[in-house]
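Cast an eye over my tokenised protein here and flag anything odd:

===
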Amino acid sequence: MSKQNLKEEALHYHAKGRPGKIEVIPTKEYATQKDLSLAYSPGVADPCMAIFENPEDVYKYTAKGNLVAVISNGTAVLGLGDIGPAAGKPVMEGKGLLFKIYADIDVFDIELNTKDVDEFVRTVKILEPTFGGVNLEDISAPECFEIEERLKAELNIPVMHDDQHGTAIISSAALLNALELVEKDISQVKIIINGAGASAISCTRLYNSLGADKKNIFMFDSKGLIHPSRTNLDGKKIEFANDNMLAETTLAEALVDADVFVGLSKGNILSQDMVKSMAKDAIVFAMANPTPEISYEDAIAAREDIIMATGRSDYPNQVNNVLGFPYIFRGALDVRSKVINEEMKLAAVRALADLAKKPVPDVVNLAYGETNLVFGRNYIIPKPVDPRLLTTVAPAVAKAAMESGVAKFPITDWEAYDTMLAKRLGQDNSLKKVITNKAKLHPKRVVFADAENLTVLKAAQEVQDEKIATPILLGNVAKINQLLEENNIDLPYAEIIDSRSADQEERLARFGAIFYEKRKRKGYNHFEAMQLMRNRNYFGAMMVETGEADAMIGGMTRNYPETIRPALQIIGRQDGVKKVSGMYILMSRFGPLFLADTTVNFNPTAEEIVEITELAAKEVEKFNIKPRIALLTYSNFGSADGDDAVKMQKAVSILKDKHPTMVVDGEMQAHLPFDIDLLKENHPFSDLVDGRANTLIFPNLSASNIAYNIVKEVANIDKIGPILLGLKKPVHVLQLGSTVREIVDMVAIAVVEAQGLK
């Protein structure tokens, strides 16, 4: 993707719909006058007085205990520098988003229009009653040191400057594991630090706490080695002044026989020769973003024994702050810690280091396109999507807070705490990344039947750029090329085909002959077969059938029946499948929900419900998710009569007989498979009492389609679909008005399905 296209997409992303990335939503009911009287006057007076009488009750009656302030003055925003508080706000909102999705912590971002340290500290101090913790962000050095130190001393809630400590914690975990792999003692290794800002100082301090010897640490800034003889040392740099080298020693000279290089500076300052000069089993952490001090490719080409980490997600060993701050604050908030101290940071370091040595869940392997991530030179720290981070790092931090005496609300039941953490975010909700990366393992050729549509072309570029698929574009060649040129869309590897053009006559004749043989006893003559092949949906389906493409996406400019009919007539159903069906995936906060049948069968029989369930379960399993299936209607386990209730009862009975190990139950009302306590209380025999359902089967098309559309609109839930189930080869029909992202998701689904075909 070009920089211009990335810029346009980023601006559109932040502006579309409701501007920004975060919002505030109510957590209590508010529909009636009574609700409002409890939420505000007169009922609100009672919790007010309870807190007045016992200040700690603020954690019981308000959101304080789960609310963090992300505060910045915009003086050191990413790599953009001093761009001001308003310009830094998108970053602060992004930080809030990460807090929420990774640790279920609510955030208010606060941008302060001041560079005065006293004014900054005073403002944050008077905000203390609102928040359970403060995350300082993007504040320039050396002011950031003073601001954090003063706030830690003056506030009674945890404060952390993530730019300092986040990188320090993650890189420390990586360093411990890298040294373990090469069997080197941290107290003996020679460490070169390039950069002397807030992050570099904090990293070096933490390495020192882990046992690194200051006499073996050599720090460089833009003016050279931090040496006691220098008179221009400001801020905290003097702390790491080292006279064990000459003051005029260059970075290249210092790197000779060095064991570790840590880059927190700028890109492309490290050469291959400099890397080659380092000691055996060199460890290089090139963490400048977006351009590392040396590229991953150059570093591994320079020497085979290197352990390399960067700040980038497209290479192994990404040092990413998101591995730390959400879980550190989660643990600190849950024990009402007064601070985030050295013991808590070290606990996070060791928890992260230990987690990297444990077997990696399939969901993580799939998310990164790997088959078997295992502790080693290319996997020294956990991946950000690892669902175990929350239940590993947060408890470690909480325990350290308790043991170091700063926890005001100690945890006594750790098993219950682990359960609470697991419930905060539900199942791992990285399904989209899993699907996309699984598709990238073996990209396929995908036909886009509606390529004269600009949204489709943008999606085609994205699937090409992300290496998900090779696009085949159907439509008028001149019109498509004009759209590509006018909108700066680059599709050099895409084939553009006009099914109506003269240069396709041979293919049209061949496709027509195949179709005629398939349908000659279904009311079609030879002429009609030839004419139908000029229709893009028929032409595209025939490309898939003949193996000239692996999958097809259509429906943007045709209604559903017009797109599905060619697929049924040409590709046909899987062996043993009597009817195809449709499924949507809703990305709920509790994990993905699979809904079927949402698009095809108007009023299926019990036997057809069984087939719909089997097809849905098979699809769910493709994403390494175990289906937990609820058959829904208005009745609970025989509590009411009626055709739908009886039909779903019968379907459950057949499914249990055919698939004894399948987790499936019903018939039941729609709330029951989610209200597990109610299910246990009233129907303890149910297969679903051990956890929420993730796959919902409906009695008819009206029920499923209405439920799907209400939920996605009212709850504003992200979705994938409709996925067509039961065809021999993947063809999917888009909804009218599908977005670029929705089309890309459907292409990834189609590629994953094509990968599974024999």
DSSP finds 29 helices and 21 strands in the chain. The mean pLDDT is 91. The radius of gyration is 30 Å. The first strand starts at residue 67 and ends at 72.
